[in-house]
């Protein structure tokens, strides 16, 4: 039997929709961003489960995957200033849906670090375990990623802050260790090393080490003006890191320049190329 053109198109559209990978990003402002244009970037092409109109890192990820011809249906569930324990207690009905193929969990920025640095790693561990168990109880084949966040300059350089007597490197090491422990305890698909790539940007001379003493010529500020959240460069690097680790495609394969995610964020082709090379 020969199908009509309209029927064939409908079937193709249905097949395309069915083949999309449903990915959920769970986190806070390190996921949704807090500056323009990051916070609403590409919001119209992803779903905000909380109805806040966020784009953020998931929005950038969606643009990157679309530009690579990959089919991801992206949802963000992010609440400013909240921990994974909050999401467990208040957002389980969203997180525990059967449709998710991939779930990304991002903890509050300081919770994973040692208690001596004002963290609470045991709460991070217990909340992660419960959330991972929740999503696996709904779909055993779900892929779980942990979003390793970055060292905060505002907690390193000012007097009296938890890492003032240490460094960005020590802060990053503490985060890496804590995320790796939780990842191993729960056999997650991968810990996505966003924080490590922030540090790499600094160590490789792409990003400035200390925004409190000015930004060195030829370098970008990986942090926003609050020295806490990601700048446009930090958000782009975060999304590119997810692109490579989730899709398996090299970040360096992404285009830069007019019409790309980098350009939409206000990042030059040269800076975008330098950032992608870090992933």
Automatic annotation (TrEMBL):
Keywords, alphabetical: Signal
Signal peptide start and end residues: 1-20
InterPro entries noted in UniProt: SGNH_hydro_sf
Superkingdom per UniProt: Eukaryota
Gene3D superfamilies: SGNH hydrolase
Keyword Signal applies: yes
UniProt cross-references to SUPFAM superfamilies, sorted A to Z: SGNH hydrolase
Protein name: PEP-CTERM sorting domain-containing protein
């Amino acid at each position: 039997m020969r199908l009509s053109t309209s029927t064939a198109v409908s079937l193709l559209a249905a097949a395309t929709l069915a083949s999309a990978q449903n990915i959920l990003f769970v986190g806070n402002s390190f996921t949704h961003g807090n500056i323009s244009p990051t916070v609403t970037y590409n919001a119209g092409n992803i779903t905000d489960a909380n109805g806040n109109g966020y784009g953020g890192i998931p929005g950038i990820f969606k643009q990157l995957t679309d530009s690579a011809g990959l089919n991801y249906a992206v949802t963000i569930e992010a609440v400013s200033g909240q921990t994974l324990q909050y999401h467990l207690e208040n957002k389980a009905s969203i997180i525990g849906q059967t449709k998710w193929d991939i779930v990304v969990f991002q903890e509050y920025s300081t919770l994973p670090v040692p208690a001596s640095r004002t963290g609470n790693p045991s709460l991070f561990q217990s909340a992660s375990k419960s959330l991972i168990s929740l999503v696996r109880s709904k779909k055993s084949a779900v892929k779980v990623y942990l979003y390793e966040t970055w060292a905060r300059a505002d907690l390193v350089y000012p007097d009296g802050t938890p890492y003032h007597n240490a460094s960005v490197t020590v802060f990053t090491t503490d985060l890496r260790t804590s995320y790796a422990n939780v990842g191993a305890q729960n056999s997650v698909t991968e810990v996505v090393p966003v924080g490590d790539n922030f540090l790499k940007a600094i160590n490789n001379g792409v990003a400035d080490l200390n925004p409190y003493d000015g930004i060195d010529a030829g370098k970008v500020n990986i942090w926003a003006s609050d020295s806490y959240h990601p700048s446009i460069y930090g958000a782009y690097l975060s999304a590119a890191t997810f692109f490579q680790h989730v899709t398996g495609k090299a970040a360096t394969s992404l285009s830069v320049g007019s019409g790309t995610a980098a350009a939409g964020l206000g990042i030059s082709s040269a800076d975008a190329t330098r950032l992608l090379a870090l992933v």
